[in-house]
Write a structure and sequence with these properties.
204 residues, 5 helices, 7 strands, 36% strand, Split_barrel_FMN-bd, alpha+beta, seven-stranded antiparallel beta sheet, Pnp Oxidase, Chain A
């Protein structure tokens, strides 16, 4: 991912937090000579060896998984808040641009089988059910329902490289930076509000 130096994020704790909060990503690999991509949750965790990994699963009906054994190289793409930035908001002439946060994770994928499949599902369900009024637990589902787990391919991704971009108008002076935040708030869309909130975390 091309990222000018000023927009590079190399704060590992910040990147990990971002991945945990924006885990719905795009899994990209090559299968049968074609690039394939699937939108799925890809969860960050630490394995038994103390290394950061991603885990997830896709449907066996999805032919993308057949490429995992031929070529284990993958790219996972994660996006955060983003919004159009009008140059009319500046106190000088310039071109419009776009503010955004993105993280690209490169790694090696391997298929998980046996009890590891159920354990992977359990971790995923427990994470997203924790705020439910009546949380579902994998352990409580019937054998008939759990037969559906035979229709998925679970996997882990050994992370080999992370590239992170945080483009939030860092190249502007304090006055214009604040003007952009105000204009984003006035635009009043979910993304513009989220982008303004992100900019407020690191004021110039």
């Amino acid at each position: 991912m091309y990222t000018p130096e000023i927009y590079k994020n190399e704060n590992q704790e910040e990147i990990k937090k971002f991945l945990q909060e924006n885990s719905f990503g795009i899994l990209i690999n090559q299968s049968n000579g074609k690039l394939c991509a699937t939108h799925i949750p890809l969860e960050l965790e630490i394995n038994k060896e103390g290394e950061d990994i991603l885990y997830g699963h896709i449907s066996k009906e999805n032919p993308q998984w057949k490429g995992f054994t031929d070529n284990d190289q993958i790219l996972a793409v994660f996006s955060g808040p983003h919004s159009y930035i009008s140059s009319s908001w500046y106190d000088h002439e310039n071109v419009p641009t776009w503010n955004y946060i993105a993280v690209h994770v490169y790694g090696k994928i391997k298929i998980i089988e046996g009890e590891g499949v159920i354990e992977s599902l359990k971790k995923l369900v427990d994470k997203y059910e924790q705020n439910s009024e009546n949380p579902i637990r994998i352990e409580d589902l019937s054998q008939k329902t759990m037969l559906q787990s035979r229709g998925i391919v679970a996997f882990e991704i050994e992370i080999t490289e992370i590239q992170a971009t945080r483009k939030m108008s860092q190249n502007r002076d304090a006055k214009n930076y604040q003007t952009i935040i105000t204009a984003l708030e006035k635009t009043n869309t979910d993304q513009s509000i989220a982008t303004a909130k992100e900019m407020k975390k690191c004021p110039i």
